[in-house]
Specification:
There is one protein chain. The protein is of the alpha+beta class. Helices cover about 30% and strands about 20% of the residues. An eight-stranded mixed β-sheet has the order 6-9-10-20-19-18-17-11, with helices on both faces. The protein has a five-stranded mixed beta barrel with strand order 1-2-3-5-4. Strands 12-13-16-14-15 form a five-stranded antiparallel β-sheet, sandwiched between helices. α13 runs antiparallel to α14 (about 510-525). It binds aspartic acid. Aspartic acid binds near residues 488, 533 and 534.
């Protein structure tokens, strides 16, 4: 090795030792006669002193160096002078007196400064990702990721799971998103698909008798890149035979708690994850991925509104449309402009409007465009139900149930952000269970699976498939943390006739089903065991545990929000020859070399 120690390893125990270090110049300070270099490697930083009074060669060499030069330093560890210690640095009690400074490689001035985060545009960070990754915070994040994945592997290995790789070149899987396709050279006109997840393969492994499977699996989904999505991402993909729902939930809960305690810099809010039914999550939080770091729950006002003089609400209630509200603490002083903003946000989520009532912080007077429609008693009853106090703002929505949930769920998050409640540094995990098997919306008489088509209906609801499919609840479960769905899974169908029936309800003809899933349906006829699984998203879990707001901060080489790799400039144009070999022709706006 070109070094005897890591820069970050040196402590008072090493005082007097001769060491050889190698790393990057984090900072260099010239004090005239003495030059201080903060030398950095993956293990941390150490102060190196090149003193003209001691070793003139080392001093002269240090005069030439600049930030990010790669150095080898030979010298002796000494205790820093009293008062010169740096308590913020693990190596801050010592320094290395350089006897020799060798430049292993110089560096141009870097386009982003490594030693400090200057808040550059993310595109610059992504273009020079190898420099961005040199930064302390990024190295910490990537290390947390490594530790998380290692924790998972050790945890599952100790419980009899084995890791099995499944193909990246596979067949289109119907999981809701668009596939990335790979044209085949040897089979003109045919395509492989990159897996959206190894769903079918892991179920086939259960048929094959590998009772406890997992894989750190890359998944690919060609979706529009809204917000914080990546075209490729990593899942801990798992499947287990002979399990029931709670076996999976208990196992994952134990793993997440252990992992958080081992790697997370953000503490757990609780160790026993609350379990909410889909219905309860929607009723209380307006969403199936509730952020439980704060309350501000949805409260039903329908009964009070039914008897009020505000016709819109009264009529809605008569038509079965609820009136619900949330109470934003301390926002009662909002101006017309601010409440106008909130109404606008509600509209972007599909609402016709948003009603509000504000209680004056001092006088307790209730104002708002609809206030005049209510009697004093009704207003008091509303505020009582909302547990609203002077200074609070009550936001009210009435529409069809799903719209009310959507709007108030979004408003709850908006107010949570405004009030700093979503900034709370803790991990508030919960399970959401008892999902409907199908989405509410039925298109052309066909149902869309709420999870995917392999999810089992609850045993006691199977009989409803013929009469009221919309009422059927499933064995799906989601793990949610701080408003993010961090894992989804289900107990699966292992019975061919039931699987066929679900496919029919979804709208697959017998031919289509055979063509796309013939292998699955056939496999189910050869002794498929009851099984279930789950797939936590590694990127999101690690981002939460590293206290990062987006998953790109915990991925070494992410794409930007436009699905572009800015560093390598991918995707890129290919030659006509390459396209010919793949039997494809440029179409539309396509360009060829
Ligand atoms: N394959 C599913 C997904 O990616 C997870 C599962 O059901 O195990 O969402």
């Amino acid at each position: 090795m070109l070094k005897t120690h890591g820069c970050g390893e040196l402590r008072l125990d090493h005082v007097g030792e001769a060491v050889t270090l190698a790393g990057w110049v984090n900072r260099r300070r010239d004090m005239g006669g003495v030059i201080f270099i903060d030398l950095r490697d993956f293990s941390g930083k150490i102060q190196v002193v090149a003193d003209s009074g001691r070793t003139i060669e080392a001093f002269e060499a240090a005069e030439q160096i600049r930030s990010e030069y790669v150095l080898q330093v030979k010298g002796t560890v000494q205790r820093r002078m009293e008062g010169q210690e740096n308590p913020n640095l693990p190596t801050g009690a010592v320094e290395v007196i350089a006897a020799e400074v060798i430049v292993l490689n110089p560096s141009k001035v870097t386009p982003i400064e490594i030693a400090k985060d200057a808040g550059e545009d993310e595109s610059l960070r992504l273009k020079y990702r190898y420099l961005d990754l040199r930064r302390e915070k990024m190295q910490r994040n990537i290390l947390i990721r490594h530790k998380a994945v290692k924790y998972i592997r050790d945890f599952l290995d100790a419980r009899g799971f084995i890791e099995i790789e499944t193909p990246i070149l596979f067949k289109s899987t119907p999981e809701g998103a668009r596939d990335y396709l790979v044209p085949s050279r040897v089979h003109p006109g045919k395509f492989y698909a990159l897996p959206q997840s190894p769903q079918q393969l892991k179920q086939l492994l259960m048929v094959a008798g590998y009772e406890r499977y997992f894989q750190i699996a890359r998944c690919f989904r060609d979706e529009d890149q809204r917000a914080d999505r990546q075209p490729e991402f990593t899942q801990l993909d798992m499947e287990i035979s002979f399990v029931e729902r709670d076996d999976v939930l208990d196992l994952i809960e134990e793993m997440m708690v252990g992992m958080a305690k081992t790697v997370s810099i953000v503490p757990l809010a609780w160790e026993a994850f609350p379990r909410l039914s889909f219905k309860e999550a929607m009723e209380r939080f307006g969403t199936d991925r509730p952020d439980l770091r704060f309350g501000m729950e949805l409260v039903d006002l329908s009964d009070i509104m039914a008897n009020s003089a505000f016709r819109v609400f009264a009529e809605n209630v008569r038509d079965g449309k609820p009136v619900k509200a949330i109470c934003a603490k301390g926002c009662g002083g909002y101006s017309r402009k601010q409440t106008g903003e909130l109404e606008e946000i509600a509209r972007t989520h599909g609402a016709k409007g948003l009603a509000w009532l504000a209680i004056h912080p001092e006088t307790g007077e209730i104002r708002g465009p609809i206030a005049k429609f209510f009697t004093t008693e009704q207003l008091a009853a509303i505020m009582d139900r909302m547990e609203a106090e002077p200074g609070d703002l009550v936001l009210i929505s009435s529409d069809k149930r799903s719209m009310v949930y959507n709007v108030l769920g979004e408003m709850r998050m908006e107010m949570g952000r405004r009030l700093g409640l979503t900034a709370k540094k803790e991990l508030a995990f919960c399970w959401v269970i008892d999902f409907p098997l199908f989405e509410e919306e039925v298109v052309d008489g066909h149902f869309a699976p709420s999870h995917h088509m392999f999810t089992a209906p609850k045993q006691e609801h199977i009989h409803l498939l013929d009469t009221e499919p919309g009422q059927v609840l499933s064995e799906q479960y989601d793990l949610v943390c701080n408003g993010f769905e961090v894992a989804g899974g289900s107990i699966r169908i292992h019975d061919r006739p039931l699987q066929r029936k679900i496919m029919e309800l979804i709208g697959f003809s017998i031919e289509e089903a055979k063509d796309q899933f013939g292998h699955m349906l056939e496999a189910f006829e050869y002794g498929a065991p009851p099984h279930g699984g789950i797939a936590p998203g590694i990127d999101r879990v690690v981002a939460l545990m590293a206290g990062e707001p987006n998953i790109r901060e915990v991925m070494a080489f992410p794409k930007n929000q436009n699905a572009t790799d800015l560093m390598a400039d991918a995707p890129s144009v290919v030659s006509k020859k390459q396209m010919d070999e793949l039997h494809i022709q440029p179409a539309g706006k396509a360009v060829v070399k």
